[in-house]
Design goal:
Layout lengths: L9 H11 L8 H10 L5 H11 L28 H15 L8 H8 L6 H12 L2
Helix pairs in contact: 1-2, 2-4, 3-6, 5-6
């Protein structure tokens, strides 16, 4: 007889995505899925926003671990001590400052997350969310 074991493949999806784009975040798929689940947000948002804001960690302020543009505006620069700290902070912030307010699509998130955007941010995030399905 055969046994079928179901496995949550979301971390693998993220890690494969990070490898595809040569991201320094490769290997962090599990951390993202765990944090997204803890804060009850869709797991793909961290990768999609991170892709649009900081090219998955390749074009970010030096030693900031901030591929999300989180708390970066004017002369303010938010840096994190690790990818894990950044993932947890951004996941929690997305839950409390966006999803809890009903801002649960790229189009609804955009006016608050990146007010100057004229639609391109939502299109970018939506495109990468689709890639993660």
């Amino acid at each position: 007889s055969a046994m079928i074991v179901a496995k949550d493949g979301r971390a693998d999806i993220l890690d494969n995505y990070f490898k595809k784009y040569n991201s320094p975040m490769a290997g962090l798929g599990s951390a993202i899925v765990e944090s997204a689940d803890r804060h009850k947000i869709p797991f793909g948002y961290l990768a999609a926003i991170g892709q649009c804001e900081g090219n998955l960690g390749k074009t970010i302020p030096h030693n900031s671990y901030n591929t999300w543009g989180w708390g970066i505006y004017g002369t303010t620069m938010t840096k994190f001590s690790s990818w894990e700290e950044a993932i947890e902070t951004v996941s929690k912030g997305l839950r409390e400052n966006y999803f809890d307010l009903g801002l649960d699509t790229p189009e609804k998130i955009m006016p608050k997350y990146t007010p100057p955007s004229q639609g391109s941010w939502a299109i970018c995030v939506g495109t990468f969310l689709s890639e993660l399905k």
